[in-house]
Design goal:
The chain is of the alpha+beta class and about 325 residues long. It contains 16 helices and 6 strands. A 4-stranded antiparallel beta sheet has the order 3-6-5-4. It has a two-stranded antiparallel sheet with strand order 1-2.
Length: about 325
């Protein structure tokens, strides 16, 4: 009896798996999606139907999005991925090879070269891992075969089709991550349309292959989200006996330095008491770490809504800043 039940269950699973994807163009929800795009954005129904008949379901995409590193790792493990000697060395090389574009981005957007380089380093290892999935496949898989976030990915799929039309790209051409993020900086389609820039003036916004465009686009993204030039990102502090519970996972600045001082926490005396911060707890290799996320820390989390991500970008940027300072000293008489 148990064997029979197992066989039946396995058969159901196989049948269910076989219905995923299929010919997307023949699925009712996809046809409804096509109709909505034709009405709202003036797409051609025949062309979209032909496009979705060529879309392929990607089980690996569903598997990957179900276990993002930010959800399953703590800081003591997460930092081992992004603060390696290999990534730091690649970042140093990226700084040297793209100095002009990075300096131009700092002058135009106020974002330090080390921060822009760090985001590109964390996202794609400086372009080494830009993604190998067709964006149309990954977004369609998540839009129609991943119910937990179907609404979000349907909106991104629409944004991608608009992007392809505006940028005169075939929608089957661009490659990206399992979640449809693209290029050196891993922009979502909506972020591309809003924040990508033609930074080298060649008439094309190419974040896939043009490092200057990628650098300018990342800097523009941070600037548009409120980056404050010359301001710090975060600082480490020691909690007082009564203040430990203040430090949480919340990343939005919600307390003032004055309030923290009243709790017995020593902070940077050069900063005003009304400076708003987020007291954040990290599980480090030697135990709990207590940090204050400042405004620019929060801006970094607009790129990826994770305290681990923002801390990795910050600490990688500090290592690259040290390298930049040394390089500048060696080149100046």
């Amino acid at each position: 009896m148990k064997l029979r039940i197992a066989i039946i269950v396995l058969g159901i699973a196989i049948c269910s798996g076989s219905t995923l994807g299929g010919n997307y163009a023949k699925r009712k929800e996809v046809q409804d999606f096509i109709e909505s795009l034709c009405k709202s954005d003036g797409f051609d129904k025949t062309e979209l139907t032909r496009l979705f008949s060529r879309v392929k379901y990607q089980q690996q995409v569903v598997d990957a999005i179900s276990r993002p590193a930010e959800k399953v790792l703590k800081w003591d493990d997460y930092q081992d991925i992004f603060l390696t000697r290999k990534r730091i060395a690649a970042g140093q090389k990226f700084l040297l090879n793209n100095r002009d574009a990075l300096v131009k981005a700092k002058n135009e957007y106020g974002v330090p070269p080390s921060v822009v380089a760090s985001i590109i380093g964390v996202e794609t290892m400086y372009g080494r891992y830009r993604g190998s999935y067709r964006v149309i496949d990954s977004l369609s898989t998540l839009a129609f075969d991943y119910p937990p976030r179907a609404q979000f990915f349907r909106s991104q799929l629409r944004q991608f089709l608009l992007l392809a039309r505006e940028e005169h790209r075939s929608p089957t051409e661009p490659l990206g991550s399992y979640a449809g993020a693209m290029g050196y900086g891993q922009f979502t389609p909506s972020s591309f349309r809003e924040y990508a820039v033609d930074f080298d003036g060649d008439g094309e916004r190419d974040i896939w292959n043009d490092r200057a465009d990628a650098i300018g686009s990342v800097a523009n993204y941070l600037a548009r989200h409120g980056w404050r030039e010359g301001q710090p990102i975060t600082m480490r502090v020691e909690p007082s006996a009564q203040s430990g519970a203040i430090f949480t996972d919340a990343i939005r600045p919600s307390m003032t330095l004055g309030q923290l001082k009243s709790e017995g926490i020593a902070t940077d005396v050069s900063m005003k008491d009304d400076t708003r911060v987020a007291p954040i707890l990290f599980e480090g290799k030697d135990g709990p770490e207590y940090w204050l996320g400042l405004h620019n820390f929060y801006v970094i989390t607009r790129y990826n809504h994770s305290k681990l991500y923002a801390m990795a970008v910050f600490q990688l940027s500090k290592r690259l800043e040290d390298f930049s300072a040394t390089a500048d000293n060696n080149t100046n008489p």
